[in-house]
């Protein structure tokens, strides 16, 4: 069975940053040809989804960007801006997190 890697992007901010991040991630997934991903011999589909508050608000409401979670294996990112989308999608293919965006 094909599993799914989901990128949940918080869109509960007052501005549109979360929606902009989600849009940029979708564009980047397409651009990098990563609708599917092979990892550990398994094939995964990649989905970018918006969601409500992830309880990481200081990285949404007080920071300049949005919080997002890569599900199911992590990582958790904060203060993500649309310009970070390329690095985040590249991390999915390489399995290396984007250190500058990582939350504890
Ligand atoms: S508003 Fe984004 S995590 Fe709470």
UniProtKB/TrEMBL annotation:
<protein>
    <submittedName>
        <fullName>(2Fe-2S) ferredoxin domain-containing protein</fullName>
    </submittedName>
</protein>
<dbReference type="InterPro" id="IPR036249">
    <property type="entry name" value="Thioredoxin-like_sf"/>
</dbReference>
């Amino acid at each position: 069975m094909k599993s799914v890697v989901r990128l949940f992007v918080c869109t509960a901010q007052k501005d549109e940053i979360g929606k902009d991040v989600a849009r940029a991630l979708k564009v980047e997934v397409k651009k990098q040809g990563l609708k599917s991903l092979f990892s550990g011999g398994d094939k995964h589909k990649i989905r970018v989804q918006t969601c409500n508050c992830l309880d990481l608000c200081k990285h949404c409401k007080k920071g300049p960007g949005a919080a997002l979670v890569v599900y199911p294996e992590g990582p958790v990112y904060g203060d993500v801006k649309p310009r970070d989308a390329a690095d985040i999608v590249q991390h999915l293919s390489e399995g290396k997190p984007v250190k500058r965006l990582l939350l504890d």
